[in-house]
Amino acid sequence: MSTGGAILVVEDEPAIQELVAFACGNAGFAVRRAGDARSARAEVQRELPDLVVLDWMLPDRSGIDLLRELRGAERTRALPVIMLTARGAEADRVTGLDAGADDYVVKPFSPRELVSRVRAVFRRRAPQLSGEALEYGPLKIDPVRHEATVDGQPVKMGLAEFKLLRFLVGHPERVFSRAQLLDSVWGDHVFIEERTVDVHMLRLRKALAPAGARDLVQTVRGLGYRLSMRGEG
Ligand code: CA
Questions:
Q1: The pTM is what?
Q2: Range of the domain at 194
Q3: What spacing in Å lies between the alpha carbon of 45 and ligand 1's midpoint?
């Protein structure tokens, strides 16, 4: 089972596509692949990935062109993208970053370097998907074991509650609306009523109650929810 986010690898050279897919899969990420810009668009359309590793030189369009298109659309504006290219020149690096790339990896690269860049981008943009352990106060999320603990003691909960908690531990002290939580935890293309969030929050707090951590998950009246060690807001 993957422990990190879903990565779309867009690369036409089979050996490099395989290398990237293997390295990311090995690191615990769920991997999807595309060999050109057209199928990359179709993949993104079908289901939004959590991060894209995008080659600069694709057979049908340039990766940079596709990146600009992703940045221009509401649905993909914030999608993390790492550009992959043989071009190492300063000017190209600037072009890539200007177009909205989150990072830039120059070929040839080691699988290890790529994975560490992927993790770094996730840490910055979506820590709950980095595949790394997350901690906040007595709470700890172990992505490998798919387990949440309070003061080292495992807490049993359903998958939706686990994903909610994982997201909150990745973004403590911040208030999220129900709509934001639906987008971030359940993903887009999913049509669930906002009320459903309340149901899962209730279950999550119930699961945390025996460990004395119930009050870490707080309702912020009129706004949504947050994870905090301070008193209820
Ligand atoms: Ca290429």
A1: 0.85
A2: 134-227
A3: 22
pLDDT tens track for 80-95: 999 998 766 677 777 8
Which of 81, 102, 129 is at the close of a domain?
129
- Residue 114 Cα to ligand 1 midpoint, Å, equals 16
For 2, 137, 143, 199, 209, the CA distances from 28, given in Å and listed in that order, are 5, 25, 9, 30, 30
Q: Is residue 179 part of a domain?
A: yes
pLDDT at 162 > cutoff 90: yes
Name the domain boundary from 86, 107, 129.
Answer: 129
Amino acid letter for position 35: G
Q: Are residues 112 and 212 located together in one domain of the fold?
A: no
Ligand 1 centre from 91 Cα, in Å?
19
Distance 186 CA to ligand 1 centre (A): 33
| 131 Cα–ligand 1 center, Å | 27
Q: What's the 36 CA to ligand 1 centre distance in angstroms?
A: 9
pLDDT, tens digit (0-9, with 9 covering 90-100), for 114-158: 999 999 999 999 999 998 999 999 999 998 888 999 999 999 999
Regarding whether 156 and 89 lie in a shared domain, the answer is no
For residue 190, count other CB atoms closer than 10 A to its CB. 10
Using the mean position of ligand 1's atoms as its centre, give its distance from the Cα of residue 160 in Å: 38
Structure-derived torsion over alpha carbons of residues 23, 66, 186, 25, reported in degrees to the nearest 10: -10
* 160 and 203 assigned to the same domain: yes
